[in-house]
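Re: that chain you flagged

S.,

Sorry for the slow reply, it's been a week of failed gels. I finally had a moment to sit down with the sequence you sent. For the record, here it is as I used it:
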Amino acid sequence: MILCLCKGVSDRKVRELVKQGQSLREIVDTCHAGTGCGACAMDLREIVRHETDDEKSKIIALNTCS
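Prediction finished late last night. Pasting the structure tokens below so you have them in one place:
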């Protein structure tokens, strides 16, 4: 789905950038999501937070299974 209508950025693109290790600030700098009207800013932050939490959970699970 298109997350940022102003800049044409999809939620899939944001998730991809998080998986590459980019922070919220880096994502905004890379694809400019959230810099137009700002309507997507809350959703953008939520996706980054959720994806970051998921990545942390995966790392913790790997470390505890070793």
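What I noticed first: The chain has a mean pLDDT of 88.

Talk soon,
D.
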